[in-house]
C-alpha cells in the first residue's frame, strides 16, 4: 500500500460543481502539501500545512480551500470548479526540518472540469 | 521573480551518458533538488545539493554551483527505465520549493 494515498484518482465533473480531493498518509509526517501540475509548467503549490492547526496559502490558492482533519489527512476542495482547474493534483508530505525539500508524493488525482 | 530553467526534452542512447542542466534564480537559496517522474506517476526524490560540488549516488550524480546558479544531473549507463521527466527544484529563502517545468528524457535503444 502507498504511504501517501489520494482519492479519487480520476474525476470528471462539470463547471460549478463542488469537488473534494482527499489525501491520507501513513508516514507520520506533520507537513502536508497540495500541488497542481499542468503540461509545460512546474509544480505549483496550492496550500500547505505544517501541523493540524497550521494552514498556509501557496502560490495559487484562489478558487481552492483545504482542511487538515488530522495529522494524517489533508483534503483539497474546489467550491465551484471551473475548466482551468483541469489538472493533475498531487498531495505530498515531508518530515520536519526547514531545510528539507524531500517530498513524498501521492499517486495523483487527475481532475477534468467540463 | 523566481525562475527555474531546464530543457524541455532530451534524447539519449541506451548505455550512454546524459547531462540535464538547470539554472535557477530565487530569492535566497537553501538547496537544489532533483526528482524523477515517470509518465502518469508521482515524482520521486533523487538528490539534494546545498554545497558546491558533485554528489554521486550510483549511476546518478548531481552537481551544484551556487555562484553560477547552476546545477546538472548526470545519468550514466542509461537504461530504458530511465525514460522519464526530471524535475529541478530550488528551495528559496522561505524554504519553499520553486519547481522547473521538467526535462523529458527519451532513451533510444
Largest interchain contact:
A-B, 18 and 24 residues
Low-pLDDT segments of chain B: none
The total strand number of chain A stands at 11
- Rg of chain A, nearest Å: 13 Å
Oligomer: heterodimer
Distance between the termini of chain A: 32 Å
Radius of gyration of chain B, Cα only, in angstroms? 13 Å
Helix content of chain B: under 10%
Number of strands of chain B: 11
Would you mind describing this structure in some detail?
The complex is a heterodimer of chains A (about 110) and B (about 110). Chain A contains no helices and eleven strands. By secondary structure, chain A is mainly beta. Helices cover about 0% and strands about 55% of the residues of chain A. Chain B has about 110 residues and is mostly beta strands. In chain B, strands 2, 4, 5, 9, 10 and 11 form a six-stranded mixed beta sheet that branches. The model of chain B has no long low-confidence stretch (mean pLDDT about 95).
Question: What are the key terms here?
Answer:
heterodimer; A: 114 residues; mainly beta; seven-stranded mixed beta sheet; four-stranded antiparallel beta sheet; 54% strand; B: 109 residues; five-stranded antiparallel beta sheet; 0% helix; 57% strand
Topology:
The complex is a heterodimer of chains A (about 110) and B (about 110).
Chain A: E1 4-7, E2 10-13, E3 19-25, E4 31-37, E5 44-51, E6 54-57, E7 65-70, E8 73-78, E9 87-94, E10 104-105, E11 109-113
Parallel strand pairs in A: 2-11
Antiparallel strand pairs in A: 1-3, 3-8, 4-5, 4-9, 5-6, 7-8, 9-10, 9-11
Chain B: E1 3-5, E2 9-13, E3 18-25, E4 32-37, E5 44-49, E6 53-57, E7 60-65, E8 70-75, E9 84-91, E10 97-99, E11 103-108
Parallel strand pairs in B: 2-11
Antiparallel strand pairs in B: 1-3, 3-8, 4-5, 4-9, 6-7, 7-8, 9-10, 9-11
